Amino acid sequence: MNLTDYVRQVSQEDFGKPFRHQAIWNSRLRSTGGRFFPKDGHLDFNPKIYQEHGLDVFRKIVRHELCHYHLYFEKKGYRHADRDFKNLLKKVDGLRYAPALESRNAKPKYHYRCRSCGLDYYRKRRIDTRKYGCGKCHGKLLIVED
């Protein structure tokens, strides 16, 4: 899918106004669906939102960013707290917040157990067991194979 063409289509269909800048995929976005850059007018979108939630949710994210875009160039309140923004977002049925991503809520990869007291530790990152020990009894930690 050509992202800029898709955003132009959504802008014309849902707002009746042209989108004259670039739309770019940005895989570095973590907790947001997209971003609007007033300095040059381009939009960034999170490809994981599209992959995990589909085109319907992604279209609502595009509408959200286009609300920022069109209001900014009309010199109206384009920030989240502004009444103009809230009214336009409601009118075009855009999403107020980006949905949670599965990849963001990943399960811990590592399971450690204290040799002395048996306390379990679950971590996303590896622990250097030679350097760190149990926080309760200062015993030695062992990695548990699941």
UniProtKB/TrEMBL annotation:
UniProt-annotated catalytic positions: E65
Subcellular location field: Cytoplasm
Transcription regulation listed as a keyword: no
Domain (SprT-like): residue spans on this chain: 1-144
Keyword GTP-binding: no
InterPro entries assigned: SprT-like_domain, SprT_Zn_ribbon, Uncharacterised_SprT-like
Alphabetized Pfam families for the sequence: SprT-like, Zn_ribbon_SprT
Source superkingdom: Bacteria
The record's free-text note on cofactor binding: Binds 1 zinc ion.
Binding site for Zn(2+): H64, H68
Co-factor requirement: Zn(2+)
SMART domains per record: SprT (SM00731)
Primary location recorded for the protein, binned into one broad class: cytoplasm
Family under the similarity heading: Belongs to the SprT family.
The protein's name in its UniProt record: Protein SprT-like
UniProt organism field: Streptococcus loxodontisalivarius
